[in-house]
UniProtKB/TrEMBL annotation:
The keyword Membrane applies. InterPro entries: Battenin_disease_Cln3, Battenin_disease_Cln3_subgr, MFS_trans_sf. The lineage of its organism: Eukaryota, Metazoa, Chordata, Craniata, Vertebrata. Signal peptide: none annotated. GO terms for cellular component: endomembrane system; lysosomal membrane. Belongs to the battenin family. This is Battenin. It comes from the Eukaryota.
Amino acid sequence: MDQRVVVNTERDMPYDSEGRISRWRNWSGFWLLGLCNNFAYVVMLSAAHDILKQQESHNSTLPTPAPVGNTSHYDCNPVSTAAVLLADILPTLLIKFSAPFFIHKLPYGFRVLVCVAAAVISFLMASFSSTVWMSILGVIFASVSSGLGELSFLSLTVYFNRDVVGGWGSGTGGAGVAGALLYSGLTQAGLSPRTTLLIMLVIPIAMVISYFFLLDFPPSFPQWRCIEAETLPGEDSNNRQPLLGDSDEEEEQEKGDEEPKATGPLSFIEKLLVIRSLLRFVVPLGVVYFAEYFINQGLLELLFFPTFSLSHAEQYRWYQTLYQVGVFVSRSSLCCFKIRCIWVLSMLQCVNAVLLSLAVYFQFLPSPIPAFALVLYEGLLGGAGYVNTFYFISKETGDRQREFAMAAASVGDSLGIALSGIAAFPVHRYFCSL
């Protein structure tokens, strides 16, 4: 009997109450995992201006800011918030470049515990830091937690129905809104950044609960064993993979009769071929993220309106908050519509970057209100690029390659973010020297 049919009858019960409860638990579990995984990353970016401003008075070794007369229009920090961005993304980028080739040797349960521990350390170090470099180290731990978590949880989706990809994407968008709103709201209410970051320690606890107690894992899921050990002699390795999208009627109609598939783990050459096939997704996703994070960490701290009722720090926080609102809305949009042409989103995001660069240079915006609208629109484009990229990768990649493909493709957004952080440094220096 076809192994695939056996698994379907066990897992996909669209009209059975237990099947509906299981699918709802898994969707909710991935939503919460997306929220918890990206929360520390978002909070560190929202706190970037405060981290640098707070340490400015404590760290006399920082470069001396430009004279006040030259910076009255821009109110520059001595160090660009891109420094926090790079600390928040470079460890993630390193993990995403290397881990897909060996991460399958580490059990999923162990990976999750490492993510939780790194997130706890990040909040504690950023809270109790006395120098800017200690704060940056806390940001690095947040990056390790987020990078390892994203790569692992995207790979984990192949063991469940494809619906969980939408749950994960929506949860990561929700992390942006929750993280930025909570940080902005609590600090606006009078709490110090240190106290606010300590309150965030509840998030790693929520990740443990979501993963170990909410998800309904398949009976054969390798929770504490490496994946390679799960393929026993004489056993079809595809037996663990068809859980993704088995009940997707549209895909069933497209597939029709399937040819016999190769089995066993992917070889190094096969992994390289998968990476090459992913370039049509990874490159436009990287461009989207390069443009939007160049805006967020290179331009927004310079887009300051001194006559407005909000202070510079408050304006920066609400830029980040509105951006995350846009990301959340668009990452939750798969149930309504899907966008196959990611290149269109890339071009529109580049237009945003050019427009806001001109706004910083010529200062033609009368108030932050138009800038708030542009930042919200920027978030909509970025979130749509992310969730649609991984949806179509999961849909168009073969069962045997899908787990590796989902992990490998996650490097696209991180690479774009890292390049934008590097580009933001000379831009910050240029504007602050005017």
